[in-house]
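--- STAGE predict ---
source: upstream dedup step, 1 unique chain passed
mode: sequence only
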Amino acid sequence: MSTSPHAGLSADPHDRHPHPHHLAERLPPINFEPASSEHTVAESAGEATGAASEKGGATSHGGIEADAAGTTVGDAEKGLASAPVVPDFPDGGLRAWSVVAGAWCISFTSWGYTNAFGVFQTYYQDNQLRDYTSSDISWIGSLQLAMVLACAILAGKAFDAGYIKYLLSAAVLFYTAGMFGFASATKYWQIFLGQGIACGLAAGIAFIPAASSVSHWFRRRRATALGVLATGSSIGGIVYPIMINHLFPKIGFVWTVRAVAFLTVGLVIIATLTINSRLPPRKVERIFDFRPLREKGFLLVTIGEAIIMWGLYTPYFFVHALKYGISSNLALYSLSILNAASVFGRIIPNWLADTYGPLTILTPQCFLSGILIFLFIPMCKNTAGLVVFTILFGFSSGAYVSMMPATVASLTVNMNELGHRTATMFLIVSVFALTGTPISGALVHHDPTYVGAFCFAGACVIVGSCLNLWAWFVVSKQKGTRWV
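--- STAGE serialize ---
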């Protein structure tokens, strides 16, 4: 092996400009691989190795892997370079794949159940909460979604500190109290507390640590493992709406929610038993740090994704289809069709992003979503149009959720900051997730034709896409490449 000080540089250009598969609802963890004594480089050889790593972008933080050159103490004393030190990742086996299975259960329950709120929204409008406006009801689902995102920055830090079992156990308790509590609820505040706060908090504190734990067990096959994890949210988005819609007329609201609770709590218990971190805990640094927003490209992308969130998640699409004579079953099952299409929207664009860059792929996908929102009313006046819309919109919107962390990675120079930078973006986006659907609900209240709500949603997605395009020009110029 060459003894050149640059021997640790990877020959693969992707190692210098990483565009990995950061899939669906995953926040990259922070500094997964702390240095240990057996990987320590002698002081005399460490400077050369560090320089080589810095030039080549070779780092092993936040789920981004690159080759790292290192020398043992004995070799350093002899002035000789040794082979690169590679962390000992299992990259398979029963224990590692059981962690993926547990993380899949968390993905299934957290995002799958959260994305099924549209079915609850329709039921509430006709039953317990019929005296409330659409905007009032939508605050419940908006808060649930926002908490999944907002809890990321705290849950990620707790995971790094070694508290993953405590987080998952707390999620079991919050899901149990929240879901079995609001099953018998008849008042707005009861449903708001049980479904909005308790269930949202449970999903928020469970998902990030569960997804991050996968990176403790896989290195070479990490993308494959995360690909398996990503299917959980989409499949959950198929199962929950069908289950709820099927059970409501047969066993009523109370036992439907209890059945959903048994499924959800059971899966989270399985996850609690199977998921564990592998690397030693790290000292937690300061939690809130908004210095990354000083970078123009990162700031533009963050604002763009936040504005897109304002328009992309709204529960009114399929409710509106009922006005045109489409059966209620088809309108509600469209949510499951959308989630089925999003499976491909979360995998194919991420695969392309490895070659062409996340921002390059994300921007046209978001533009497509915005155009489709404007086309919803003319497209969904018949069954065929509704099905076509849900498939196209599911595919295009799936890229938004799956590619945000990968986009942050492509804008990050120091991979030590990757987890924190992604959490910062998600924290800001969560504020817009909280307020987006209530704003649309207020527009529906004043304009029952839904035209105002759709124009607002479509305009938000188009404006956010334009900011993404602006960011693409800025970062492309900085990097000297079109693929960013």
